[in-house]
Amino acid sequence: MASFRKLGRPTAHRRAMMRGLVTSLLEKGSIETTVTRAKDVRRVADKMITLAKKNTLHTKRQALSYITKEDVVNKLFSEIGPKYADRDGGYTRIYKKGPRVGDAAEIAIIELV
């Protein structure tokens, strides 16, 4: 799952960061990050939820290859996937929060709908 943006990081660092952000979003239901990261996280998280809606062994293994915690994958397939069974995409919502104090980067909250 490649990212749209490079986010000023080497490939391996960017992929690890995205995996961590997606895992945290699915685990907690909501995270706070920059707007550009939130937009990339939305893209991958929606794909993970779509996998969970299919709920086959193959899709579970695909999710396990990306999400870093096994208990989050179990939650994804047992709770989150069935919750969105009748919804065709748009599983996340992004709220813009304002500039960050240190570097004035635009901050957003991304959450599951």
How would the blueprint of this fold be written?
Elements: H1 11-28, E1 30-34, H2 35-54, H3 57-66, H4 70-83, E2 92-99, E3 106-112
Antiparallel strand pairs: 1-3, 2-3
Helix pairs in contact: 1-2, 2-3, 2-4
Structure description:
Helices cover 55% and strands 18% of the residues. With 113 residues, it is of the alpha+beta class. The protein has one domain (11-112): Ribosomal protein L17 (50s Ribosomal Protein L17, Chain: A). A hairpin with a 6-residue loop joins strand 2 and strand 3 (106-112).
Low-confidence stretches: none
Strand order within the widest beta sheet: 1-3-2
> Class in CATH?
Alpha Beta
CATH H-tier superfamily: Ribosomal protein L17
Major β-sheet profile: 3 strands, antiparallel
Structural class: alpha+beta
Q: What pattern of helices and strands is seen along the backbone? A: HEHHHEE
CATH fold type = 50s Ribosomal Protein L17, Chain: A
- Per DSSP, the total helix count is 4
CATH architecture: Alpha-Beta Complex
Total DSSP E strands:
3
